Structure prediction request, 85 residues.
Amino acid sequence: MNLTRKAVLATAMAGSMLGGGALGVAVFGASSGTAQTTGSSTTAPAATNGAPSGTFKPNEDTTHEKGESAQREAQEDAGQRPTVP
Prediction:
């Protein structure tokens, strides 16, 4: 290969590497993210102590009641959240 041909090939390779790098930055750069960045309000996470909040309302459907144990029904009747299957 002669010197001119090598120079043209080296220039083309360098140009394609720079072009690919610029394209990569444009596609995968930090400014192309789609996450919401407006608004600065933060909410505290809900407490995870395992105890659900609210009032317990038992399922009194007849098909559901057929498969229930006597212990579970007694807990429901007492207004407690059932702990047995």
